[in-house]
Amino acid sequence: MASTSLAFFNITTTYRRQQPISAVAKLPPPTLRHHSMPPEKVEVFKSLEPWVSKHVLPLLKPVDKCWQPSEFLPDSTKPVNDFMDEVRALRDRTIGLPDEYFVVLVGDMITEEALPTYQTVLNTLDGVRDQTGASPSPWATWIRAWTAEENRHGDLLKTYLYLSGRVDMLMIERTVQYLIGAGCDIGVENNPYLGFVYTSFQERATFVSHGNTARLAKEGGDPILARMCANIAADEKRHENAYVKIVEKLLEIDPNETMLAIGNMMRKKIVMPAHLMYDGRDPNIFEHFSYVANRLRVYTASDYVDILEFLVGRWRLEKIEGLKSDGRCEQDFVCGLGARIRKLQERADERADKSRQRFHRRFVKLKLNIDDTATKKNSDCKRKGSFGDVRESNTQPAADGYGGVFGLNEQMEKESSSNSKMTVKAMVQKSRNKTRKYLPKPDSSSQKAKGIMLRDNYVKGQRMYQVTDDLIVTPFFPYGLQFFHP
Ligand SMILES: [Fe+2]
Ligand SMILES: [Fe+2]
Fold this sequence. Notes:
The protein has 486 residues and is mainly alpha-helical. Helices cover 54% and strands 3% of the residues. Strands 1-2-3 form a 3-stranded antiparallel β-sheet. Helix 4 (99-113) runs antiparallel to helix 8, helix 10 (255-268) runs parallel beside helix 13 and helix 12 (301-314) runs antiparallel to helix 13. The longest helix is centred in the last third of the chain and has 41 residues, at 325-365. It is globular. The model is unreliable at 1-21, 366-425 and 434-486 (pLDDT under 50). Belongs to the fatty acid desaturase type 2 family.
């Protein structure tokens, strides 16, 4: 199994390339508001302290009941040969997992590893922050213990990935360092109402994501990795319960302010905590990671709406009473938002389908053909260990590395192979000649790299994604984790 050089972290995306900044990643977007919670509301959180002690802190697990990373990893206290056998077994288990899976797992792991940033964000929230670093306040106790539980997630995933030999640890470590240096701006304005709406959503998103990596690991033949991801997902679920409970309580005692906060966060969109991810080379690395996660169905656009609708139902937002006119306005907005996003998604899907069909027809008209060898290689792309329609990513690319790059459908492949005057190489060359001016300059080091690659290309101004060396291009990118609210 070829090692998964995370060369996708290096890929050329010159169209939005920014000047690298030595110690941090992209500049964070400016936060427009600070301390948006009226000062008198601090008392609300002070008054909730006994309730937090009684109903939230018990959701933490005692340390001796928590799993620890070493329980899932080769035992380094064993004699060298036994330890090496366990490492070999770990590597054998990961053979059936495609490279794309590792892209997503690495992205998840990097997100977990930026934990210092998230603890910092929680400690910016007025009325709940840890004032001393060891404050006995139940809010501060929760923040520290939550961080301690979360800390196991990145530790476990990172060690497992390191031992798997499937990823480029140096690039990963640099990316983590960049990400922690960059921080994150999730738009919570030091306001705990906004902060707890965000964490409710975010913990559920990570529950969904880790749950899906668990499922895929099981399908790919690695039950230990599946168990690891499932255990992480269970932690996220427990944390989700705590934050959802806090917002539920806030809705009970201060419905209008809480409804405004929910509306505020949903209008802003929930941005992922690792949105400033950067590896020192690719300024769009987070979009690339999100795209692969979307493709593998680990975290999709539809999951976003599912989470929104889940929270609307869980908090019974439609039935909240005692709202002022601005609160009622946000209630209507939030309760109808899921349906509106779904409608937009459907329209985007339809547009993408039509565009894809037009795209295919254009190539049929051009009578561009594919040689038999390339066709065969492309049709062999699916193999055991790849998920659903995901193409195996470390099969050799056909022709010059762009075999199948245009996503020919079966009908086209039949037509093409029956009239093989033009090879894939010639077809691509012809297309390139027509579109050369839109193509970013190739990065020779990334072209040589094997394993996961992501490239952005343009064909007549349309964005194309080539996810791996051998295939997977969607000429149209309707959405990744980007949403447009009406
Ligand atoms: Fe986590
Ligand atoms: Fe979490």
